[in-house]
């Protein structure tokens, strides 16, 4: 009875509240379905900021039918066919939260409607099929499994963030809680979100029953969703505006790609490209499709090089849109332990090297070549990346930059190998225990060599700027000093 009265009250509020919401919206929304009108009526009182954010979105102002009529190079929708019931209405609450109900373990009865709590890539695929399929092949979609299914990485995570206790002068590491994991490594990589029955939650309209989600909230790039899909589109296109502008600006990437382990944000911010972008930020057109070099922007952001459809001012395609963010990359500068060619599969947990470990190289830098792209693929990818650079720079500048980067990457690997030799010597001489390669002082210095300092050197060169990051800020100075400290540690233990 209470549920029926609550549902009735929601329906009564619909006309008044939704009409008021539309009146306050600067740009009228597209045709809104009856189901979404009910959602908006209630949520205008419950979560008004969410509703206003959606009303300002392209989803609210465009129907899939309209989006599909746009010229192909300007199109933001990649599906060739959208279900008939969705074509003529705005992409609203129900159109996203009501999809594929049978696949969603988080689906529940919500005031007479079957609603999914989480909108997943498989739902977004209804309109953005190409983007979702591309994303699914990459390392980001597989980011949770690449940690959780790899015992080497999992040991590193558990050692790093496990709670420490001291007993008899020894440090013991306890298994980290899921909450700690989800607030650190798995906040970026994504968590495994499951449904553990139902729970009661309070709202302004009274108590309601909703699915009880574990490991929630989470919007990591490799989140495992209750429908079995991998990833979170909102990691880059935040809900409920889903802005392409936000996804293209470097602030979004900065949420995860920052020092000390992946200092891409700091390096980019200090680079010449970053200087231009932040100086001209308000003058650039961050929303246009296609994104035209020299017209919409005159210096690249992260998305320019790694994902976006970019063209010349005349509309000639320089790089097609690709949501596999590694598809244009030929080398993986961030690796455990050395740089290496990009993996063939986004699921790197399947890799096995000659040491029998799920790593792309051995401790002595012998590559697991059968799991990595070959020379032809590397050349193709490097050539595609160079095309973006050549739209603004001369051939001599571009080719010299890439040649220099190859040299720097190789030399940083040699510095990592030197540190690995010292660590292996400490293990051989029983000065350190290699049972867990991450928990002793010399092992943690070794981690710093490749995880912090080598990465800083490589990224500083890859993004053509921030020379201090290559030299003194987690760069060559640290590589050299860290190596000396590892040697001194060994000599001290021998005394």
Q: Could you walk me through the main structural features you see in this protein, from its secondary elements to its overall organization?
A:
By secondary structure, the chain is mainly alpha-helical. Helix content is 45%, strand content 9%. The chain folds into three domains: 1-97, no CATH class; 128-242, no CATH class; 243-494, Hydroxylamine Oxidoreductase, Chain A, domain 2 (Up-down Bundle). It is built from 23 helices and eleven strands. The chain is globular.
Sheet with most strands: strand arrangement: 7-8-9
Share of residues in strands? 5-15%
CATH topology of the largest domain: Hydroxylamine Oxidoreductase, Chain A, domain 2
Q: Which assembly state applies to the chains in this document?
A: single chain
Radius of gyration: 25 Å
Provide a concise account of the structure shown.
The protein is mainly α and 495 residues long. The protein folds into three domains: 1-97, no CATH class; 128-242, no CATH class; 243-494, Hydroxylamine Oxidoreductase, Chain A, domain 2 (Up-down Bundle). It has 23 helices and eleven strands.
Features:
495 residues, three-stranded mixed beta sheet, disordered N terminus, two-stranded antiparallel ribbon, globular
Set out the fold topology.
Elements lengths: L1 H23 L9 H13 L1 H8 L2 H4 L2 H4 L16 H4 L5 H5 L9 E4 L2 E4 L4 H4 L4 H8 L6 H6 L2 H11 L2 E4 L2 E4 L4 H5 L2 H5 L5 E9 L2 E8 L30 H5 L1 H4 L10 H7 L1 H8 L11 E2 L9 H5 L3 E2 L5 E3 L11 E2 L7 E2 L33 H16 L4 H34 L12 H22 L4 H5 L4 H19 L1
Parallel strand pairs: 7-8
Antiparallel strand pairs: 1-2, 3-4, 5-6, 8-9, 10-11
Helix pairs in contact: 1-2, 2-3, 20-21, 20-23, 21-23
């Amino acid at each position: 009875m209470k549920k029926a009265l609550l549902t009735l009250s929601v329906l009564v509020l619909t006309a008044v509240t939704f009409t008021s919401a539309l009146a306050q919206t600067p740009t009228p929304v597209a045709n809104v379905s009856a189901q979404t009108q009910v959602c908006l009526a209630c949520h205008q009182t419950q979560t008004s900021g969410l509703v206003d954010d959606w009303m300002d979105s392209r989803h609210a102002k465009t129907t899939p039918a309209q989006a599909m009529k746009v010229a192909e190079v300007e199109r933001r929708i990649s599906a060739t066919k959208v279900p008939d019931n969705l074509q003529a209405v705005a992409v609203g609450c129900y159109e996203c939260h009501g999809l594929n109900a049978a696949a969603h373990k988080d689906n529940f009865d919500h005031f007479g409607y079957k609603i999914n709590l989480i909108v997943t890539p498989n739902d977004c695929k209804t309109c953005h099929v190409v983007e979702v399929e591309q994303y699914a092949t990459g390392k980001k979609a597989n980011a949770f499994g690449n940690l959780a299914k790899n015992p080497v990485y999992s040991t590193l995570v558990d050692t790093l963030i496990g709670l420490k206790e001291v007993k008899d002068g020894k440090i013991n590491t306890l298994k980290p809680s899921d909450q700690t994991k989800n607030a650190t490594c798995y906040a970026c990589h994504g968590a495994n979100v499951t449904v553990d029955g139902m729970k009661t939650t309070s709202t302004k309209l009274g108590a309601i029953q909703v699915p009880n989600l574990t490991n929630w909230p989470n919007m990591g790039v490799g989140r495992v969703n209750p429908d079995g899909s991998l990833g979170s589109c909102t990691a880059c296109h935040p809900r409920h505006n889903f802005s392409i502008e936000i996804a293209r600006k470097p602030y979004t990437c900065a949420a995860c790609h920052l020092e000390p382990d992946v200092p891409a944000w700091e390096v980019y911010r200090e680079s010449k490209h970053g200087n231009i972008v932040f100086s001209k930020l308000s003058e650039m057109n961050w929303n246009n499709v296609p994104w035209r070099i020299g017209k919409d922007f005159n210096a690249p952001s992260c998305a320019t090089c790694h994902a976006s459809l970019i063209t010349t001012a005349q509309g000639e395609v320089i790089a097609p849109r690709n949501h596999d963010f590694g598809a244009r990359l030929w080398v993986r500068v961030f690796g455990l332990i050395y740089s290496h060619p990009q993996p063939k599969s986004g699921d790197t947990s399947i890799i096995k090297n000659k040491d029998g470990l799920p790593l792309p190289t051995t401790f002595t830098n012998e590559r697991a070549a059968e799991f990595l792209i070959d020379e032809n693929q590397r050349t193709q990818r490097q050539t595609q990346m160079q095309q973006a650079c050549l739209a603004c720079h001369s051939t001599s500048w571009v080719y010299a930059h890439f040649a220099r980067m190859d040299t720097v990457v190789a030399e940083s690997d040699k510095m990592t190998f030197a540190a690995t030799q010292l660590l292996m010597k400490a293990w051989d001489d029983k000065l350190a225990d290699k049972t867990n390669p991450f928990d002793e002082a010399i092992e943690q210095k070794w981690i710093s060599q490749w995880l912090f300092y080598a990465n800083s050197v490589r990224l500083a060169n890859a993004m053509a700027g921030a020379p201090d990051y290559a030299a003194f800020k987690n760069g060559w100075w640290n590589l050299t000093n860290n190596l000396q400290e590892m040697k001194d540690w060994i000599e001290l233990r021998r005394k």
